[in-house]
Amino acid sequence: MTQYVYRFGGGVSDGDDATRGNKNLLGGKGANLDGMASIGLPVPPGFTITTEMCTRYYAEGQSFPDSVRAEVAGGVAHIEAVTGKKFGDASDPMLVSVRSGARVSMPGMMDTVLNLGLNDETVVGLAASSGDARFAWDSYRRFIQMYSDVVLELDHGSFEEALEIAKEDRGYFLDTEMLAEDWQALVAEYKTLVEQQWGKPFPQDVHDQLWGAVGAVFGSWEAERAKVYRRLNSIPGDWGTAVNVQAMVFGNMGDTSATGVAFTRDPATGENVYYGEFLINAQGEDVVAGIRTPQYLTKAARERANAKPLSMEEAMPEVYGQLADVFRILETHYRDMQDIEFTVERGKLWMLQTRSGKRTAKAALKIAVDMANEGLITQEEAILRVEPSALDQLLHPTLDPNAKRDVLTKGLPASPGAASGKIVFDADTAEKAAADGQSVILVRTETSPEDIHGMHAAQGILTARGGMTSHAAVVARGMGRPCVSGAGGISIDSKAKQLRVGDRVLGEGDILTLDGSTGEVMAGSVATVQPELAGDFGTLMVWADKIRRMKVRTNAETPLDAKTARDFGAEGIGLCRTEHMFFDAARITAVRQMILADSEKGRRAALEKLLPEQREDFRQIFEVMAGLPVTIRLLDPPLHEFLPHQESEFADVAAAAGVDVEVLKRRAADLFEFNPMLGHRGCRLGVTYPEIYEMQARAIFEAACQLEVAPVPEVMIPLVATKRELELMKDVVDKAAEAVFAEQGKRIEYLVGTMIELPRAALKAGEIAEVGAFFSFGTNDLTQTTLGVSRDDAARFLTTYVDKGIYPQDPFVSIDEEGVGELIALAVERGRKTRPDIKLGICGEHGGDPRSIAFCEKTGLDYVSASPYRVPIARLAAAQAALRK
Amino acid sequence: MTQYVYRFGGGVSDGDDATRGNKNLLGGKGANLDGMASIGLPVPPGFTITTEMCTRYYAEGQSFPDSVRAEVAGGVAHIEAVTGKKFGDASDPMLVSVRSGARVSMPGMMDTVLNLGLNDETVVGLAASSGDARFAWDSYRRFIQMYSDVVLELDHGSFEEALEIAKEDRGYFLDTEMLAEDWQALVAEYKTLVEQQWGKPFPQDVHDQLWGAVGAVFGSWEAERAKVYRRLNSIPGDWGTAVNVQAMVFGNMGDTSATGVAFTRDPATGENVYYGEFLINAQGEDVVAGIRTPQYLTKAARERANAKPLSMEEAMPEVYGQLADVFRILETHYRDMQDIEFTVERGKLWMLQTRSGKRTAKAALKIAVDMANEGLITQEEAILRVEPSALDQLLHPTLDPNAKRDVLTKGLPASPGAASGKIVFDADTAEKAAADGQSVILVRTETSPEDIHGMHAAQGILTARGGMTSHAAVVARGMGRPCVSGAGGISIDSKAKQLRVGDRVLGEGDILTLDGSTGEVMAGSVATVQPELAGDFGTLMVWADKIRRMKVRTNAETPLDAKTARDFGAEGIGLCRTEHMFFDAARITAVRQMILADSEKGRRAALEKLLPEQREDFRQIFEVMAGLPVTIRLLDPPLHEFLPHQESEFADVAAAAGVDVEVLKRRAADLFEFNPMLGHRGCRLGVTYPEIYEMQARAIFEAACQLEVAPVPEVMIPLVATKRELELMKDVVDKAAEAVFAEQGKRIEYLVGTMIELPRAALKAGEIAEVGAFFSFGTNDLTQTTLGVSRDDAARFLTTYVDKGIYPQDPFVSIDEEGVGELIALAVERGRKTRPDIKLGICGEHGGDPRSIAFCEKTGLDYVSASPYRVPIARLAAAQAALRK
User: Fold this and answer.
1) Are A470 and A451 in contact (CB under 8 A)?
2) Distance of alpha carbon A222 from the chain centroid
3) Considering only CB atoms, which chain B residues are within 8 Å of A688?
């Protein structure tokens, strides 16, 4: 017969090797209590009703089989035996707590009922046995209040109100002023409230109380809030919850009693020192409530804080010593930093809870590395202990957590890090101010490639529109600039040079602070803390690099970015965009002349001016990446992105090209597109104007030939949908290569491949691989087309979409595995079938997202490519993915 | 041993049942010659060298095996035996023609060498045997000229020049003035030219001549032009070509000789009368050259044309009688109208060629129906004989083919039919002018939903931008208005009210004529011919309807469109868009008020005004479609399409909504999108503003409840990418339905389903079918997203793409079967697996394209939906697809 009840405490631990620590069966809390009991720690005795019982409870119409009633009776008897008290005994009653405990902590589930077992008779016994009538009646009223709220689901406001009135009537201000008889009177009022609202008297039978609470825990599993939470977090409904019934212990039984919480190491810094606080003569909720100021756990901490009240180490040296032993035992047993709750009842230490402690990124890193060095965990485990995306915090300046903040609004945390500076509303002003040594924040409704120089010059970027993968966000992450995007609460009037949030108006020169890690936008300056890349960081990276299978490259298009990325450990460039190079002020007129030419001859004349510039771009990048692969994407964006806007710019181009301004303007108007994302861009430019790609290919090969240590250029053709496109473009590149090699009298190795960024390309990957030597999955565009969502426009509905559970997360942040992922897997399969040694990588923004990196590992890609500041994240995530595979 | 040479003529026909009429082996021409010989028709004797020989020729390094040389010798002997002449005989030489003949007629292939077998000796024999020295020397010079051109590939210009000089020297104007000695002199000059250019004398050995010509035919298979043509038309390179060698017959041997071409029925009207022309004492090329005016074949035709020169029926009654017999035999044998070439040599009829004759749409229809009625073919064959898209010509007015045209430029043939009218540059003017009884042509750079009323009012629409599925094209086809779109040659200045083509400028009120079937744009008025929907049309439709498996619905959104479509045989509505209803002048202010509201309450206030209007829209359409299914797509386009543009419009909305104009304008600016196609549209509107869909659903059910014969509303949710979206939206619709049913006290049957128009929806079709009762493939958007091509912007490169063979045809016209098609097939498979009785249809523009309809049949869809004027095309195409399956 299935065992549904597992006892623990008092030397008993029903779990065996199969069930020990089995959260699936015992729930998180139950497993930990069982775990602590099994290693002999002082856990108040109790028992866990398993999650399997929950499932059966629902399968059988919300009822309990008799066998379970018997098992629970055995559990109660176990507690009685250990405590030497009787459940419902009028002279010295045994009291219990009842708590839910699912596999994972889950809002919406019934939380806790304390002091269960009190009734009109046992309260008198408790008063006698504890020698504290006030404590007994206070405990009873707390029990009625909790039970009415979470089990009977009565209006908790009316109970709070009754307490307030009771205090007012008596002229009291604090609960602590209430005397035994006051509590007793309140208990009577509470019982009346229960009968009024519930229609029945408050249950006096302690077994009815117990079964009522157990039923309420199981019942809360299917409560609306819990169901919504499960749906949003993809938690299966059939997991069920466990119930934990445990003897009460009291930290509020005088000055030899206490209650506290602790971490086995410092959760902020990761230092190997005990960290926590406690209160003498208090219950757990008092520590949390903040009415009394808790005391430090250790003498060192107290002295560091220059505090007066004695630490536990000083006030209760003996119990403290026991607690310190428990810390060591727990860390050795669980092999991780623990977050603990304990109670001291009349000098006796009881452990109520242990779990892995939450910690800052910095602490996570230090603890993982320390524990591996201490031999407590392996290097592999250390790698798995650090959340890769948390590293981001370590690589950028952060706001001083203690500084005051005047938060104006919150946008999307588009690029991490914090920055303060004067507001400027356009790129040119940003550049000028930066040249004058001023720190500026560039504020735009949205950014475009023309703003690049201003973004470079600025300390941070704020946009009113655009999502996590808008132009501003992508470019800012690439540059390592903090950025808050899509701050819908602000409206920007760049003509009037005003930024409006609600009724506050800021102008040019006003100071603004951005926290790109939280999305907060603050008025005025806020102090920042510079990152410290401690030795632990490097150590963990070395360990990660030993483990990972996938290579990590970077998306970089300037020598500076390339250098940053290489310093961060990039093993090549996975995406070198070439369009930003075209925006350079020195070149833009030639670029515009090319675009607005109405003949191949006109375009060639302009391209000839661009060739030496472009060659020098590549030469510098190749030098930084000497010997490593560099994937260069040929021109991709729609040409109208480069168009002049102002009269003077048109005049410049007209003069350079020797054409009439009006003709130019007409041609510019012709280039307008309704949906530029799906327009005349990518290889469509190369197909219609092969001379552009020819120039770029020539620049690549001429640059490569100039270097001693040649890189391995991988020429990448964007937006391919058919084999034929790639064939035509490869032909252009190959011809340019042969021409350059003939001129230079030397050959270098190179590859021609393609982005897979359209659904059709993924479907036809088998054919396309006949021509292309590599695929790089452009998951930004692949997501846009597969889902039919423009990332520049998605902000307006994507939040609602995630809120309503339509997408589990922003698909531009983490790959939509079901949709986009199926296409990638298909393309990998078909591409490899045609060309088994095809190189496969990813160069979309997802290449720096740990969840997506795990998908890439699973799908068998050869490398990921991330923006420079995400390279370390990608290295760690790739190692984790390899370990988990 | 493989037989490579097949003889025909003179009672011989080497083909057996397996090879008879085998175009793959004998080529098109060879198969027909063999066919005619096999049924005893008078074919000049000859032989065919098979396509297999061509393949072997290339496999063996362009050489001929000895066995083939022997077979060819046998073929030559066969011709000699039948004609009683000898090849190369100096006294009465046998002459032959050599022609290529691939499976399909193919430009770039060597065409024809006539009179082969003439040399300096045999020309003298020919002069003697024919008794006509001029004929003999003219024949020799023609042979040298052709042979030099197509076999030796010498510069044909120099030969033409020599002839011109010869005539000038002699003061002649016409070739016919050249005497025997003049031709003889020219032959000498030609031979000099050959020796100069070729480096060798013109070949005198007749066998050398023959093998040279045969080699040239095979060689031309791999000529550049032929290869390009094959690639563009997906013709495999290994098909090869056949060579036909045939005895020469001469129609220019005096007044008992003649040559002619004929159709066995009238190819223009389809009437069952002989149709053709001939010339006495002439060679085939003379008929084509147009120097002499050919004479009619039949007396009736001559009389009808009121012509003088005797018809062949009158001039050569005996031979004409033989020819008429041949016509009957050929039609019975080939069971189709034939296009014939014949020659009469000294009173003897020779058949040179027969093939299925090209015909007009009208003729195709009549011939097919007639032949089925005559018992010559089955009804099924009749169905297969008519090109469905040709029906389009029959349903719209066409330009009088004899009228003069002043063609300004050519755009895309976006919506068939022809129309003339005064130019107007905006929709309001169009409406006013039409109200005054004027015919107008609406000329726009591009159209938007706001132009609908003007498009309705206009006789035709011309746009400078946009492809075959641009807004203008789609709407015009739906309305049956002729439309030329994407006429890139014109530029429009709508402020100045001017249209510019090159250096010509037209203004408002100038007359313009459009041919929407060819894309021609003409200045001035051109006479049109109204369509005659003869009984044959109805007959064929009845036959088609018996055969087809798929239902044919229509895309219609007005009662008028619905009525038109029902008259054309639509079996329901497959796509009733609801957005155009929102543009009605009486409603647009309420619509704008809804869009610009910043709260649900504001939106609901506006929606309340729209509800009765929308209900009436649906009621009228339901009435027309009584008892048939009507698929209604809930609001789909991005809201900013409805936005005000002018100050006065903003003021109207502000007044109606009681909001400040500036607030409205800011909200309008917020709605701007970079890529509206991928923006906040489709069910994303319904998810964020459920009240809009709620109002529409209510309007649908209220309207349906009003009718005696209820339709079966199929409520369609657009742009779904996930099951969850459909779940949320179905919930909104179901709730509205229940509310209406409760109010009305009656229930009607309805379905809720979805468009499949995003790649992700196709991939997740299995899940989505758990919720949706039907799928309608929105292949316009599915093509846009799968290929990453915006149809509004594609004109700029799509032509180049088709020209370069990247796509075999415009993927917005015919489904891209390899890419989009794979997704559709996948969705069908996954959808049916989940819900075996799921209804599957297509409502993209492809639903009216025969090639795409064939794909739909193959993929197993239940119905196609086409614009009203394409419903007959779809019915026929669906029947053909069913027959071919």
Assistant:
1) no
2) 28
3) 796-797, 800
B683 is catalytic: no
Task: Report the C-alpha gap between A214 and A200 in whole angstroms.
Answer: 19
So what's the pLDDT on residue B533? 62
Give CA–CA dist A864/A854, Å, rounded.
10
pLDDT above 60 (res A290) = no
Neighbours of A744 (CB within 10 A): 14
Q: Tell me the angle at which helices A156-170 and A133-146 cross, rounded to the nearest 10 degrees.
A: 150
> DSSP per residue over A421-466, as a string?
EEEESSHHHHHHHHHTT--EEEEESS--GGGHHHHHHSSEEEESS-
Q: Do B678 and A784 touch (CB under 8 A)?
A: yes
Report the greatest alpha carbon distance in chain B: 106
pLDDT digits (tens, 9 = 90+) for A96-114: 999 999 988 777 777 789 9
C-alpha triplet A758, A832, A880: angle, nearest 5° = 85
Tell me the residue ranges of DSSP E strands in A802-884.
839-842, 863-866
Residue A735 near residue A695 (C-beta atoms within 8 A): no
Residue A641 is classified by DSSP as: G
CB contact under 8 A, B676 and A674: yes
The beta strands (E) that lie in A1-111 are given as 5-9, 12-13, 46-49, 86-87, 93-94, 96-102
Q: What is the total residue count of chain A?
A: 885
A784 touches A790 (CB < 8 A): yes
- The one-letter code for the residue type at A671 is L
Q: How many CB atoms lie within 10 A of CB B820?
A: 28
Percent of chain A, pLDDT > 90? 64
Nearest CA in chain A to B488: A670
The first and second tokens of residue A726, run together, are 């790639």
Q: Which residues of chain B make contact with A801, given a CB cutoff of 8 A?
A: 684, 687
- Pair B651, B734: CB distance under 8 Å: no
Which candidate from B687, B758, B805 shows the least CB-CB separation from A804?
A: B687
> Which sign does the torsion angle of CA A334, A335, A339, A344 carry?
positive
ipTM (interface pTM): 0.80
Average pLDDT over residues A635-643: 87
**Residue B450 and residue B453: Cα distance in Å, rounded?**
7
Query: Searching chain A, which residue's CA lies closest to the CA of residue B720?
Result: A787
Among A872, A120, A881, residue whose Cα is nearest residue A537: A872
Cα dihedral A848, A853, A857, A863, rounded to 10, equals -10
Count Cβ atoms below 10 Å from residue B688 Cβ, excluding itself.
15
Helix residue ranges per DSSP H, B507-636: 535-547, 559-567, 588-596, 600-624
Closest B-chain CA to A767 = B818
Greatest alpha-carbon span in chain A: 106
* Sheet order of strands, B12-13 included: B12-13, B5-9, B46-49, B241-247, B96-102, B112-116
Torsion of CA A456, A458, A463, A466, to 10 degrees: 20
In Å, how far is A760's CA from the nearest CA of chain B? 5
pTM to 2 decimal places: 0.80
pLDDT block averages, 10 residues each, chain B of length 885: 91 80 89 92 96 92 91 96 94 94 81 93 94 93 93 91 92 88 96 95 96 93 83 80 95 90 89 91 70 84 88 95 96 94 95 88 92 96 92 81 88 86 92 86 87 87 81 78 87 89 91 90 87 80 96 94 92 93 81 85 91 94 94 92 83 83 82 90 95 96 92 96 97 97 94 98 98 97 96 84 87 95 98 98 94 97 94 96 94
DSSP state of B307: -
> Are B117 and B94 contacting, i.e. CB atoms less than 8 angstroms apart?
yes
